[in-house]
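Lab notebook page, bench 4
Experiment: in silico fold of construct C2
Operator: M.H.
Input chain length: 169 residues
Purpose: comparison with the prior construct
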Amino acid sequence: MSTEAILTAVAAAREAIHAHEVDIEGLDRAIGDGDHYINIKRGVDTILAMEGELSAMAPSAALKAIAMKLMSTIGGASGPLISSFFLAGAKTEGIDEPWTPATVARLVADGVAAIQKRGKADVGDKTMLDVLIPVADVLAEGAGEGLGAGDLKTRAVAAAQKGMEATRD
């Protein structure tokens, strides 16, 4: 994979974020100040606006550039947390080599660990880590088992759903 894969993933995230505007805003209003949708939308839009600049970069350089830009673009607590994910990903072992499931698992694990360190939170604290830590865990397990991308995606989605549901109450 390449920087193109990062941009493709961000474009897919943007589509999902835009499609669920009402849900995201409603949840944040219920537990926060209602600005989360605006902040994450601004973040993905900013990354995609950088596409011309990023597409010529190696993944490590692109992830670092994304992190630096998001730090000054996304407001609230999300900016530093999401920036930490991308900055840690830029340092992931093998990030500039052809990506394998193990590379993706390491990238996610490194990024999630950075969010966890910056936010000083863990599973059960009713944060994004209730979803991200289980996803990172199943990606690492599945990559270790030699699973392909399709099976990893299926496991990651199931782990994310279960983590999200665990915060419902």
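Observations: The CA atoms of residues 25 and 37 lie 6 Å apart. DSSP finds nine helices and no strands in the chain.
Next step: discuss at group meeting.
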